[in-house]
Amino acid sequence: MPEDKQVSSSAWMYTTIPANIASGPLSTLIPLYILATGGSVIAVALAIAVYNAVSIPSSFVWGRIADTVRRKTLILLSYLVTAVLLGFLLFEKDITAIIFSYAGIAFMTGASSTPLNLLVMDTSPKDMWSGRFSLLQTITSFGNVIGLIIGVVATIYSSLSVLIVVLSASVFASFLLSIFMINDKFRPQRHEVHIRDFGRFLKNLFMPQNLIVKMPVYYLMNTISLKKINEFRRSYLYLLYLTSLIFYLGTGIFNGEYVVGLKYHGISQSGVFEIIFIAMVLQAIAFRYSHLVISATKRNPIPFKFVGVRGICYMLIGISFVILGGSHFFYANMLLYITAAGIAYSVFYVGSYTLLFNTLKGEQGGRWLGYYSTIAGVGNFIGAFASGLMAVDFGFWSVFVGAGALMIVSAYGFSKL
Predict the structure, then answer these.
(1) CA angle 35, 171, 89 (to 5 degrees)
(2) Sign of dihedral through CA atoms 176, 179, 184, 189?
(3) What's 158's DSSP letter?
């Protein structure tokens, strides 16, 4: 492929903008929609927990399928099914059905995320990969911000049902654009097996225990030896993973009930969208410049002080639920949330992956990165599930103060790396 054609091949990335417009306000829409349908705090926490739980295996499943199916096919499937599931929300008044649709959206999102990343490599020369990945992330953030603006406008002048229609149509627009703008050159490889001894083939096919007998016992024991487990527990990665688990556990607890807490405290639907929107705008800006903070940190690429700031903001938000009300509560939460989610999280995210890239070298780097993503998903899942129980038993303030305390603990752990 000529170089000029490769340079212009990034046009397909803009087909993701409508889909990203839908994904931007979705995490705010679902809790509000569950509450509007008559759901409880527990129902919202369960929906978010199920969403995170489904996201964990989704990336593994679709990642394996992406090597055997055309990228464009998976992307189209993801967009079409997601649009349908969003449309179904209009007719679902049962909380269980809403949660299942939300889980289905989580699963189908993985069907497009991996192929989209692979398309970056398929359509660009290697020396342009980093720039193209950055462009794709910028386009994603741009679409999310537009979606949140639509969420604010829709909740002020219309209803959540109208917003659902807009988001469903937006994803379907990405489906139509992808049909014409994605030129997928990838073709799955076909593996042919020539059978010369049919009897031996059947014997090996239906007697898999032969494979187990030939496995050396010492190899199996060495794999699960206590020595290796103890070595990992003393390793740098163990502390990083354990501290990250605490971080994402606190994040899951906070995110599980924040939207619901704002609504119960008297903030309108449009007000909730405004707080999330401003935080996401600042987050996109912070992502762009967070590398300057990372490069200024010599010893540890994770500026643990930002994690501590995130924890303090969480705890102050919890206190605001007790002592503030009205406009003072609204503006205090706007300031604290944009600091915690808009600025501090961006620096942590870039810093944590920078640390991983610097630490994980060799052929097993992808495996350990996968473990890290799994840890993030598990932490968010457990945290979201626990947040509902905490809100019911102790109140919303306990959710956010508890999440902040976990952030402080994780900040201490990151300071020891």
Answers:
(1) 30
(2) positive
(3) S
Do 109 and 26 meet the contact criterion of CB atoms below 8 Å apart?
A: no
Q: Per-residue pLDDT tens for 144-161?
A: 889 999 999 998 998 899
Extract the runs of DSSP E, i.e. beta strands, from 285-359: none
Kindly tell me the sign of the dihedral angle through the C-alpha atoms of 201, 205, 207, 210: positive
Q: Which domains does the chain have, with CATH numbers?
A: 1-192 (1.20.1250.20), 198-228 (no CATH), 237-417 (1.20.1250.20)
Q: What is the pLDDT of residues 280-293, one digit of tens each?
A: 888 878 777 776 77
Q: CB–CB of 52/176 below 8 Å?
A: no
Confidence label for 311 from pLDDT (cuts 50, 70 and 90): very high
Structure tokens at 180: 């014409």
| Amino acid in the structure at residue 306 | F
Distance in angstroms (rounded) separating the CA atoms of residues 365 and 275: 37
Distance CA 397, CA 316 (A): 9
Q: In angstroms, rounded to a whole number, what is the distance separating the alpha carbons of residues 404 and 311?
A: 4
Tokens representing 253?
Answer: 């607890």
Nearest to 310 by CA among 277, 265, 349, 260: 349
d(CA 84, CA 79): 9
